[in-house]
Amino acid sequence: MKLLILHSDGFAFQTKSKVPGAIAEEVGENEHSLEIKAKILVVFTTVEKKDENDPAKATELAVDDIEKLAKELGESRIVVYPYAHLSSSLASSKIAIQIVNAMKEALSSRSFETYKTPFGWYKSFQLNCLGHNRAESLRSIDVEAGIVKEEEKPKRREGERSQFYILTIDNKLIPFQEFDYKDNPNLKLFMDYEVSGSRLVTEEPPHTKLMKKLELANYEPRADPGHLRWYPKGELIRNILIKYLYDKVTALGAMPIETPVMFNIDHPIIQEHLLKWAERQYLVKSGEKTLFLRFASDFGQFFLLSDQLMSYKNLPLRIYELTKYSFRNEQSGEVVGLRRLRAFTMPDLHTLCHDIDQAIEEFNRQFELCCEVMRDAEIDYEIAFRVVQEFWDKRRDWILSLIKKIGKPALIEIFPMRTAYWIMKFEFNFVDYLGKAAALPTVQVDVDMGRQYDINFIDEKNEKRHPIILHCSPSGALERIVYAVLEKAYILQKREKKAPSIPFWLSPVQVRIITISDNHLEFAKTILEELEKYQIRVDLDDRGDTVGKKIREGEMNWIPYIIVIGDQELKTKKLTVRVRETGERDVKFTLQEFIDLLNKKFKPDVRLKLPIPFRLVSTSPKFA
User: Fold this and answer.
1) By the 8 A CB rule, do 539 and 512 touch?
2) For 613, which DSSP code?
3) Is 170 exposed, middle or buried (0-12, 13-18, 19+ CB in 10 A)?
4) What is the pLDDT of residues 201-220, one digit of tens each?
């Protein structure tokens, strides 16, 4: 028997489906999932062929050893997790089930709070291994010899692990433990999140209620978790972002394309990628073929580029694709709201560069583009650079120049050697109300995919060469932009007592007109029509409710400007406006003054119309 024992801060699992060819335990309705929000020993258990000779002895040796370790660690909770991946010599399903069930019963009889996951099922699980020196151990049980052997961990070579630092704008590289975070509390939260390694979500984040309350999006209970349904107002926000990013990347010189959403898994390059991400893939059967749903645009874009023969005169060459959707079968305990999804919308820009100097020149442009996106979306962020030591030694001053553009210290993760396709990348990370971080824009310097996909260009000497490739998502997943906007609004409301809001250019309804009585409807409709000429998203609350109720509902929907029309406005032809951003309630404007103000608020100037059914509140559909 093999036991991989992890001391974890919490544990959760969810059954997926029965393992083909195995005897799967029948489990009750309440036994398909579990969530423990406390410290626990997780015992991954592989029952081997040799354990069949004496199942009782194998059980006794395992339980004695687990009890000893649990008492040494002061741990009272244990979960036995059948796990077939620690050995190639597996016992029969019948004996394995017998032993793991006997282990659970024996541990329970010794006063441990004991759980077990079902045998013969594919399961997703989440845990957060604690950082002490006995938090991980691998045991081998020899039934014939009657001994338990703790296998030594392979010794890690000095400097093999990446190291975290904080780089200040005055060029000081400080180990993250020694940095004074007093003036950078969000950086401290981000650093803690990075070091913890835990992505398990144990509390519902605030934005999930807000996305429903504002009628933007909701869970679809009849789909796989992490696949949402978007209501008209939420889809409007996404379409505004799509147009905004399209305009940005095409202004940079990118050429939009589209590639397939699924690929045959038989291709050798795809097989290599799937080995690294096997547990996160969605597979689709089509006759005799097995296909997978893409988790990024790289496959399609790089296959397209490998079929072309380009000249150095074509470089830098930029292609852009909006992947609607990308698919990742994320672990269930990590899937929540808009922060981490299994189907998401990813703007993806790839740039072929002649050499590293051209790549850095292009990187600077894309870095500035990412900064603009965050400024326009009004999202606060922390910056992280991940870099290979050799590149860091050569280009530290350049990286520092990027940090100075942001004007605050950054996390630097330095790797002793290259283990992935990139030598350097950055991410802008948003830290939410619960202290969880999510990466938004990123740019990566890729020195290997050109070789892997055999992408070539002809250089000045008429010779074939592989380009350096920049991977850029100028916003990250669009769903995460909406998540960050909502979370920031909640943070400002809770910590600074500010009225929550969405940036004006992204607000589904930008102006609401309220009438005091039916006598004012005709004038109100002329105001609505004039504003619509400028593609301002405006609606009219023509219901017979009280003015106070109409105003409250407009404020609950975070509408930036509310116009109240009564006898005075009809007489003077001036508008009385409530401004959400400042809290002002009776600002007077002529119609032209108000239009001029709103036109200035369109930064960026991206205008999409409000769907026609929403023009009148009395006929506007509600989504919940």
Assistant:
1) yes
2) G
3) exposed
4) 667 899 999 999 999 999 99
The answer as to CATH 3.30.930.10 being correct for domain 163-259+297-485 is yes
Q: Hey, what CATH class is 2-151 in?
A: alpha beta
pLDDT tens figures, 573-608:
999 999 999 999 999 999 999 999 999 999 999 999
CA–CA gap between residue 325 and residue 304 (Å, rounded): 19
Q: Cα 15 vs. chain centroid, distance in angstroms?
A: 23
Would you kindly state where each structural domain of the chain is located, as residue ranges? 2-151, 163-259+297-485, 260-295, 504-619
Separation of CA 582 from chain center: 32
CB 45 within 8 A of CB 82: yes
Topology classification of domain 504-619: Rossmann fold (3.40.50)
Locate all alpha helices (DSSP H) within 169-312, ordered by sequence. Answer: 185-196, 206-213, 232-251, 268-276, 298-306
Q: Are 609 and 537 in contact (CB under 8 A)?
A: yes
CA distance 422 to 64: 47
- The predicted-structure confidence for 132-188, as pLDDT tens digits, reads as follows 767 888 989 988 878 888 775 444 444 458 999 999 999 999 999 999 999 999 999
Q: How far is CA 17 from the centre of its chain?
A: 25
Biggest distance spanned by C-alpha atoms of the chain: 100
SS3 state at 507:
coil
The pTM of the full predicted model, rounded to 2 decimals, is 0.76
